[in-house]
Amino acid sequence: MIKIKEEYFPTLSDIEEKLSDENYGKRNFVNNNHGIFLVVESAKAFTRNGKEYYNLKIRDGKMTVNAKSWNWMEEPYAGGVIVAEYGVDKKWGYDINIRSIKKYSEIVKEIPEICSLMPVFDKRKEYEKKLIEYIKSMKNEKIKELLEKIFIDEKTRLFGYFIAPAATRNHHVRIGGLLQHSLNIAMICDQISEIKIFENLDRDVLIASALLHDIGKIKSYDLEDASFQFTIDGALEDHIGIGVQILNDYFGMIKDFPQSIKSQIMHVVLSHHGLKEWGSVVQPKTLEAIIIHNIDRLEAQAESYIDYWKNNENKEISEYIPMLGTRTVNMNDDIY
Q1: For residue 203, what pLDDT is reported?
Q2: CATH of span 2-117
C-alpha cells in the first residue's frame, strides 16, 4: 500500500495477493480504492471496430503485468505513475481506467514512498563492497588503476553503474541490476580461475572484463523516467558501441596503459554476445572472451528463471520466458 493524503492505494503486489475466484471481475477489490501503478510500456491500439485502447505494461517493485486501458482521463506514457480503477479477468487479465498520471521523476520528489514502485536490487551495498575487494585484488597495477578510475575515484567515478538496470525486460530489470549482473559474472569467473582447469587464463583480465563488459548500459537506458526505456544513444549505438567510447576515455586517462591488455578488454566488450546475429561486433577469439560470453548468457538465463519463480510460486509450469525461449518447470519449491 502507498499512502497519499491519508488514503491508502494498493500496488500491483497488494492486488495479486488478494486475487481469488471471488474477486475476478470485481472492481477495486482491495481497500475499496483505486490502484497505483508505474507504467513501463504504453502503446495505442484499435479494435476491429476502430475503438481506441492502450496496451500497457505496469509494475510495482516486485512484479510486472500486461494490462489494457479502455478509459483514461490523460493518455498513459512510459515512466508515468497512474492512479486507476482496476479489475482482473481470468482470461483477459488486467483492465484499468486511468484517473490521473504524473511523471515518476516529479511525483517521487513529492511522495518518496512512490519509489517502492521501482524494482531495486536489495544487496547493492554488499555488492559495492565486493566490487572494491576485487579491485584491490588486482595484481596488474594498470588494470587496478583503470578500475579505480571507473569505480572509486570521486572525480571520475561512473555513478550510473550502481543504479542502472542490466536490461529493459529479460533479466536484472531493477535499480542496481547492472551491478548485480556484472559482479555475479565476476564471481563465477573468479571461481573458474581458482580451480585452474584452463591453462594460461589471465585472472585480472577476466575479472576486469566481467565488470566492464556491459558498461555502456549506463547510457543506454533512461534512468530518470523509471521505465528503463532506451535512450536515443542506446537505440542508435547500442550498449556495446557506447561501452567502447566510455572505455576509450578511461584508457586515455592512464599513462602508458598496455595496448595488449586494452585490446583484450575491448575484445570482450565487442564479442560478449557471442554470435554476430546476437549483437556481437565480432565473435569471441580469446579464452577470456569465450568464458565471459558463456557465463554472461548462463547468469542472465538463470536469473530470468529464478526471478520468474520468485513471483509465481503457486504455479507448476511457467508462461513462455523469452530469455529462455521456452516454458519452465519449478522442481524446487523450497528454494524460492
Answers
A1: 97
A2: 2.40.50
